Amino acid sequence: PSAALVLGIESSCDETGVAVVRATDDASELLSDAVASSVDEHARFGGIIPEIASRAHLEAMVPTLRRALDDAGVTLADVDAVAVTAGPGLVGPLTVGASAAKALAVALDRPLYGVNHVIGHVVVDELVHGLFPDRVMALVVSGGHSSLLLVDDAVDGVTELGHTLDDAAGEAFDKVGRLLGLPYPGGPHVDRLAREGDPTAIRFPRGLTAPKDQARHADDFSFSGLKTAVARWVEAREDAGEPVPVADVAASFAASVADVLTAKTIAACRRHGVDTLVVGGGFSANSQLRELAAQRCAEAGITLRIPPVRYCTDNGAMIAAVGAAAVRRGVPASPLDLAVDSSMPL
Ligand code: KG4
Ligand code: ZN
């Protein structure tokens, strides 16, 4: 069988990622995955500063590329196609990656594929658990997204069934983390704290699950009401001069997010007759979500595919995986005047 080496470049946020994937007719194999992060440079600002991220990508791009090639034991001349994140993400950071990818595609005279970052968070699982069956449901949860996707084809068959109407799941965790005085980004800290608390201690609201919301927004999510409910609960305690049981607050909050995400996603699987669920994005590292998804998918007879945590965060592998799918399908390459799109639709 013919094999093609696909280089994947990711730079939509604060991770510079370059990876090499070997694409054959029946598999996508990860040969290397190099990542450089500027997250520490943003920590003191409590959020990502696009200008700083862009400069960090500019400095890290070539060293990260070198590392990816070395780790894979290949040279640039071996590369058959270049895939790059075209959006969504921060314009400056995206432009650094797209410029590098275009320069490589021109110099090597190889096809360029502009890739949607959100789809990358789903298709990366093909590197771990094998190529997808014909139809899968995908839940993409990160600091910027909470979307439910029906995936018939990784390249041109992705339908967005729903998304968050306000905060993303990771964003809600980060905000609750700040509220509880935890370091940035708060998500992993809230997760850890939640494991020490009682998830049934406080009954926080379940966003968009009431029958009237379910009728209009069956596949959409909302987490800002939950976040506000947590803030009010904590304030009330403080105003009363009582100690805040932070572990119970974290656990009860995390339970609401995991409950809503899994209940709605499994209902969508049933409605569409889909028996495979892929969960991707940085928030799929969340242990409350992983646990409840495993339990409920087993009960519902749904095969659950969640890649290991290191594949869930931003990296070049997810972009190379989509590039590999494009090469396998023989889809036309992107034009070399490809633009980046900060709010790229699916
Ligand atoms: O996909 P990602 O690395 O970057 C974006 O594209 O947003 O996602 C990072 C998000 C952050 O909000 C982070 O706090 C959250 O995912 N996160 C977690 C956990 N690990 C990362 N939230 C809760 N529990 C975790 N274990
Ligand atoms: Zn991401």
UniProtKB/TrEMBL annotation:
Catalytic activity: L-threonylcarbamoyladenylate + adenosine(37) in tRNA = N(6)-L-threonylcarbamoyladenosine(37) in tRNA + AMP + H(+)
Residues at which Fe cation binds: H117, H121, D314
Keyword annotations: Acyltransferase, Cytoplasm, Iron, Metal-binding, Transferase, tRNA processing
Cofactor: Fe(2+)
One Gene Ontology cellular component annotation held by this UniProt entry: cytoplasm
SUPFAM superfamilies: Actin-like ATPase domain
Gcp-like domain: residues covered: 29-320
E.C. number(s) listed in UniProt: 2.3.1.234
Keyword tRNA processing applies: yes
Name of the protein in its database record: tRNA N6-adenosine threonylcarbamoyltransferase
